[in-house]
Design the sequence.
């Protein structure tokens, strides 16, 4: 009996031992199947989400800026297609979206003109109104031949800048958040020396900060104030307004929404015709001003210890010929008025006047075909500069196709990076000359 019981116990133990791995395999098999099912479910959900997102995407033709901007405002994904409905490349899609945004900014300008209300470095490399700029009557086009450019990067902090002349007062180079500027803690004047007498067509730009509460007079003159017996016209500026003072005065105050710090000051002259802009707002328009011309620009600023005055990003340039005249004469023309965000192909709103000039030229000359070339200076890597110049040229083309409905077949693009400088990259003026968009007649 004991023998039988032991045999039965041995058999039962053997059976239990044999069944344990099978049971474990069964459990793990079920767990594996469960994990696989969960993974499949997640993949299905991701696929469903992608399909749903694609289904919600707004389909816009590459030339339909209104559709693109509406979709962008709604936060929905945008699917850009060509005229036949076929999806375009990602690069063309990005360029179309960028051009549509720039067009919207330009189109908003007339509304600001009538209402008086409120609404990033490009090839020119000049100081320019910021991304929140209010553009009112803005027709400023920077000169193309740079006579003087200075950002004080080559000066020691605390020193007077090497390339300016001190007329009166105390100035020193200072730095804040990585940006250099020339600071004055009292009344002072500096001269910007030029290599030649100021031409008949010129532009002057710089950034000014200070005078936040006093209403002091800050000014620009184009002849030596100490040597002229008869007062000439001069440009006056404050953070809240300014204009032309002199025999034919013209000035305006800025809407509070257009007051920014620093204040971007810009002057455009063609003979006796002078226009002045503050933060993208035209504050003076004088057909017969008596600015005079000399081999320098004199800038007077007011400051004190609690409210110092500063100037930075000075750019003086000779204005070029009308685009078509220059193009017809040499077959190509460089433009410095198309500005982009730093390191980007996004066209800034203040590029609108230059782009309008190109649009008008293409509209007036229906047989004209252009190669749009992007160029950079040699700052940065050669590969990144090359890619950036290509994207910027493509963005200009897309803007013209969208804005002016120019046949895309009339426009070609090419980027050269820093490989074709037109001036030495060893000076600030040369680097600004080299940062450009060129139009070449085909």
Sequence:
């Amino acid at each position: 009996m004991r023998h039988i019981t032991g045999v039965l116990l041995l058999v039962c133990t053997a059976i239990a031992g044999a069944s344990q791995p099978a049971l474990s395999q069964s459990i793990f098999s079920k767990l594996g199947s469960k994990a696989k099912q969960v993974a499949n479910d997640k993949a299905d959900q991701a696929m469903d989400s992608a399909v749903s997102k694609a289904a919600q995407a707004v389909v816009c033709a590459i030339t339909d800026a209104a559709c693109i901007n509406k979709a962008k405002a709604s936060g929905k994904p945008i699917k850009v297609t060509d005229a036949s409905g076929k999806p375009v490349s990602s690069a063309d899609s990005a360029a179309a979206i960028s051009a549509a945004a720039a067009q919207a900014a330009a189109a908003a300008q007339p509304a600001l003109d009538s209402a008086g209300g409120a609404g990033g470095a490009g090839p020119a490399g000049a100081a320019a109104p910021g991304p929140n700029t209010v553009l009112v009557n803005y027709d400023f086009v920077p000169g193309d031949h740079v006579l003087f450019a200075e950002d004080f990067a080559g000066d020691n902090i605390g020193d007077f800048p090497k390339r300016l002349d001190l007329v009166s007062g105390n100035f020193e180079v200072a730095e804040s958040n990585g940006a250099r500027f020339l600071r004055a803690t009292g009344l002072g004047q500096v001269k910007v020396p030029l290599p030649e007498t100021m031409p008949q067509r010129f532009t002057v730009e710089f950034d000014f900060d200070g005078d936040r509460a006093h209403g002091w007079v800050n000014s620009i003159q184009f002849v030596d104030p100490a040597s002229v017996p008869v007062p000439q016209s001069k440009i006056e500026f404050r953070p809240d307004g300014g204009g032309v003072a002199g025999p034919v005065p013209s000035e305006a105050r800025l809407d509070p929404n257009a007051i920014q710090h620093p204040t971007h000051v810009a002057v455009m002259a063609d003979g006796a015709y002078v226009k002045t802009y503050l933060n993208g707002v035209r504050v003076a328009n004088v057909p017969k001003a008596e600015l005079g011309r000399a081999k320098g620009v004199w800038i007077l600023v007011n400051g004190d210890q609690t409210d110092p005055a500063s100037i930075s990003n000075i750019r003086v340039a000779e204005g070029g010929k009308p685009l078509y005249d220059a193009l017809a004469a040499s077959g190509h023309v460089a433009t410095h008025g198309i500005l982009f965000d730093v390191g980007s192909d996004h066209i800034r709103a203040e590029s609108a006047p230059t782009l309008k000039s190109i649009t008008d030229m293409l509209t007036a000359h229906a047989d004209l075909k252009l190669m749009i070339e992007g160029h950079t200076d040699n700052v940065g890597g050669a590969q990144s500069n090359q890619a950036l110049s290509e994207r910027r040229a493509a963005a200009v083309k897309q803007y013209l196709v969208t804005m002016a409905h120019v046949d895309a077949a009339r426009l070609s693009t090419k980027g050269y990076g820093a490989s074709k400088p037109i001036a030495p990259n060893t000076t600030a003026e040369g680097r600004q000359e080299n940062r450009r968009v060129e139009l070449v007649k085909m």
In short: Residues 145-318 form a domain with the Jelly Rolls fold (CATH 2.60.120.560). The two ends are 112 Å apart (CA to CA). Residues 340 and 347 are 5 Å apart (CA to CA).
